Amino acid sequence: MEELYRRYSAMLFNFLCSLVGDPAVAEDVLQEVFIAVWKGSGSFRSAASVKTWLFNIAYKRAVSWLRRRRDLPIDSVVAGLVEQGVETTALQNLQIRAVQRALMDLSPQHRAVIELALFFDCAYAEIAEILGCPVGTVKSRMSYARQHLQSLLLAGGQIDRLPE
């Protein structure tokens, strides 16, 4: 357990922050994740990677929390989206905040697809396993999420278009 926590807790925390929008809540959900891992260690299938299994548990716990809490503020700052040490300017900060707000406007399912693909370098097959849906669904969610993000950012004058 100690090794799992050391290796994956920061990654899972950042993922949870992006889904729930609040670092304090993400910490609580992360603890729930590792309790579930401890209790459910016998259910781990060696066909899946440990990373995929952990992200699946984290995703389910975050969605469960979101269902219990429908009054999330849209303006929540998503912690962990930008690595520390990146040169920041006022313009970059404004663009980052615009993207964060746009991400928070997506449904948890669409936000999870974007987060897992872009920030956690998961392949579509891994994302499908984490979210418990077919790869085709992941692809359609990704397409919808990109279109929705682009329309939000275009409307705010933040971008001309998303990169391919």
Write up this protein.
By secondary structure, the protein is mostly helical. The protein has one domain (2-155): Orthogonal Bundle (Arc Repressor Mutant, subunit A), CATH 1.10.10.10. Helices cover 68% and strands 0% of the residues. It has helices spanning 2-20, 23-39, 50-68, 90-105, 108-119, 124-131, 135-155. The termini are far apart. Mean pLDDT is 75; it is low at 71-93.
Question: Layout of helices and strands, plus pairs?
Answer:
Elements lengths: L1 H19 L2 H17 L10 H19 L21 H16 L2 H12 L4 H8 L3 H21 L9
Helix pairs in contact: 1-2, 1-3, 1-5, 2-3, 3-6, 4-7, 5-7, 6-7
Summarize the structure.
With about 160 residues, the chain is an all-alpha fold. The protein is built from 7 helices and no strands.
List key phrases describing it.
164 residues, Arc Repressor Mutant, subunit A, mainly alpha, 68% helix, 7 helices
